[in-house]
Amino acid sequence: MSSLLRAWYVLLALGLLTFVITAFVGEVPVDVTASVAMPHDVLYRTGRNLRSTLSSLTNRNDLLAEVYDMRQRIAGLQQSNRNLQLQLKRLQEVLAVRQEQSPGVVTTAPVTGGSSGPAFARLDLGKGKQDGVLVNMPVTVPSGLVGIVTGVALHDAVVRTVLDPQSRVGVTVRGRGGQGIAVGLVGGRIRVNDFIADKPVKVGDQVETSSYGGLFPNGVLVGTVEQVLPPNPNELRRSFIVRPAVDLSTLSEVVLLAPQ
Prior knowledge:
The chain is α+β, with helices and mostly antiparallel strands. The chain folds into two domains: 1-100; 104-257, Rod shape-determining protein MreC, domain 2 (Thrombin, subunit H, Beta Barrel). The chain contains three helices and twelve strands, in the order αααββββββββββββ.
C-alpha cells in the first residue's frame, strides 16, 4: 500500500471519529480536530448538524406530548363542566316543581324510551324500586303534568302519560273553577269530558289538576283550551279539547312526586 493511500485512510478515520464524537458527544477535543485535514471539516459540520437535528426532534416530540396531555385535560374539564351544568339544571327543575306544584318531590328520573308515534302514551324511566319509585307517583316537569307511574321494576318504571286514552285526570279551569275528567286522545291532544262549569270555558283558558280522583296534587298545569265543543242541548256538562302543556317528545328527565 502506498504512503499516499495510507495517509488518506488515516485522514478518513480521523474524519469519521470527528463525525461520531460530534454527533453523539458534543464538542470534539482540540487535539483531535486539529489533526484532521480541511476536507474532513465537512464531516465535522455534518455531525454537528445531525446532533442539532436529533435534539430538535426530541424537543418536538416532547412538545407534541405536552399538547396531547393538555388537550386531554381540557376535554376532561369540559366534560366536568357539562356534568355540573346538568346537575344545576336538575336542581333548578326540582326547585321549580317544589315551589309551583308540590313540595313532595321524591326524585328525578331519566327518560329512557317510550311508545312511538305522536301520542306518546307511555314513557320508560331509568329508575325503579331500588331508587324509591312507586306505583301511582305523579310525574311532572316544571312546565306541567306528564302522567303517573303505572309499573315499577327494580331498576326501571313505566309512566302512563296524559295522552294515553286510558289516562284519567281530574281537572279544573284555572280562575274559572268547575270539575271534569281529562282523557288522552290519539293525535297528541287531551279531551276534557263531563265538565261541570262554574263559569263559561273559553279558548286559551288554562286547565290544571284538581283534587277530583285523588291521584294528583292540585294546581299542576295540564294544558290550554284549544277548542270548546258545541254543547248538547239536553246536557249541562261540557267538553273541550286541550293542547298539552308538556311536549312529551322532548323529555329527557322528569320529576316524581310522592303518591297522594
